[in-house]
Sequence to fold (428 residues):
Amino acid sequence: MDQILSLAATNLLSPIILSFALGVAASLARSDLNIPEAVAKGMSIYLLFAIGFKGGVSVADHGIDGTLAASLLAGIVLSAVLPLIAFALLQVMGNLSRLDAAAVAAHYGSISIVTFVAATSVLSSSGIASEGYMVAVAAAMEAPAILSALWLISRGGDSRRMDPDLMREIMLNGSIVLLVGSFAIGWITGAEGLSKIEAFIVSPFQGVLCLFLLDMGLVAGRGLRGGSSVLKPGVLAFGMVMPVVGASMGLATGLLLGLSTGGVALFMVLSASASYIAVPAAMRVALPEANPSIYLTLSLGVTFPFNLTLGIPIYVSIASALTGG
Amino acid sequence: MQTHKAKRVAIIIEQVMQTRLTDAMSKAGVTGWSVLPVLGGSGKSGEWSREGQVTRAGGMVQVICVVRADLMDPLLDAAFSVVERHIGIVTVGDVEVLRAERF
Fold:
């Protein structure tokens, strides 16, 4: 318990969390602080490239074993199953329509890559190693949840035709292409490749992450300001209960796979996080009648801050305690 | 100067549906259009702004095209098939153009 509290305190007072808090506070206070859209986009490209590249280099250094394929498969299964649990929980906790519940559930099966990036940063600051291929697991967990949500809808008698372009758009969305592509480049070029661009992708990483999370704080604050009225208490509570349920499943999966402390913690983070980039766009195409204020506010305004501030240190501490790391 | 009658169709639609709409317009025989970003607005779901959106799900665009009157029916059918279930506004206006052969 002491370890959890200590890591939580360290995490809460880290520059990245304080930057996020600054963004939320500025937004709630209606400050005109604003990160230009193009700058935010540039920073997200930088972070995805850096995290993918470093993951690839780590795999090149340590080689791959059977757990890579098993982890990818487990990630896909988790992403497909988590929406079913989220949907069932929403039936109990929230009073949402089947359509809204399915749309929310899809977000909780998919992942938040920014939460993943923040978690890798906490792990690296704490000197905890993780499997480099977790980046590929993150990419694999983006899409299956969307199919599960559509299946949930079709079970309710609403037989929707799958938009033929939707799967291509999800699988080839910019974040996945960049993450998997930079992972492949890192894997191919290895430590030698890293040494050539280290000054660009390693040293500035934390600083860029701070600015990016400042922007995410502004966005989350705006979401809370505008969307808090649409969330009933039960749905609000779901936004903090579901990450814990997801993290528990990620923990069991990571332990079963025999991953390192960092790998288990990252599996927990991926399972606990909720998408707010790829899935909302997919839901607007596939389930346009679902209310975006509910799923966006919940994933971005409730679950993302919860995971960033309390979730990550708790998940890392539990993974450390159970793996002896 | 000699001018010619044409129709101007403006469709405000969610950004995620933009390619689907322009593909449908292309199939309906429309050969040219312009896409403009929408900065923000207010509607049935309240006010919204493009500022600070982290996902394409929150953005809107306006697709504008000028066509001959005989293309209107296939164009509107195509546009309606895309916007039917989505947020969107389709408006049609009469305009005059200088070079009729371009439309």
The longest helix of chain A spans residues 292-323. DSSP finds 15 helices and no strands in chain A.
